[in-house]
Write a structure and sequence with these properties.
mainly alpha, Arc Repressor Mutant, subunit A, 6 helices, about 50% helix, about 10% strand, DNA binding, Penicillinase repressor, WH-like_DNA-bd_sf, DNA-binding
């Protein structure tokens, strides 16, 4: 079996930006603490190579660990990278909001498509789960729904709370 990471067609050429997510079939939106910190460093720094990222992390990590983390984030489609001389220069491909929007979209898509149950029952279960997780969050969800409806329908939210 051939190692696709060694495939020259998936490797960027000198000075050529790489396509985010190349070599990856599907993005994995679950991010670990280290991945989130690396993304945060790149958002604040702009462009950086492995060494520059490593120097800005809260914990000293081996160069190869940082390099592997950056490569994983690139393969997930979250980073751009460009070969400059002998090093890759990385930059964030998506904002924090864009990442969370994609995570939420993927979560909802999987929630509804992986179940054989009726959508109304799934919605009811989702609302119950949010309520059990954080009652205040249920109020926030209701407010967000009202606001989204107003934006999508081009009308103002109901001033009395929507009763």
């Amino acid at each position: 079996m051939a190692d696709s990471s060694k495939n020259p067609e998936t490797q960027p050429q000198q000075g050529e930006p790489s396509t985010p997510g190349s070599g990856s079939k599907q993005p994995a939106w679950g991010l670990g603490r280290r991945e989130r910190e690396v993304l945060s460093v790149l958002r604040s720094q702009g462009n950086a190579n492995v060494q520059q990222v490593a120097e800005r992390l809260s914990t000293a990590l081996a160069y190869t660990t940082v390099m592997t983390t950056l490569d994983r984030l690139f393969k997930k489609g979250l980073l751009h990278r460009e070969k400059k001389d002998r090093a890759f220069i990385y930059s964030a491909h998506l904002t924090a909001r864009e990442i969370e929007e994609r995570r939420a979209s993927d979560l909802i898509r999987r929630y509804f498509s992986d179940s054989g149950e009726r959508p109304d029952m799934l919605l009811s279960c989702l609302v119950d789960a949010v309520h059990h997780y954080d009652t205040g969050m249920l109020d926030q969800l209701e407010s967000k729904i009202r606001s989204a409806r107003a934006n999508y329908l081009g009308s103002d939210p109901e001033p009395d709370g929507g009763s």
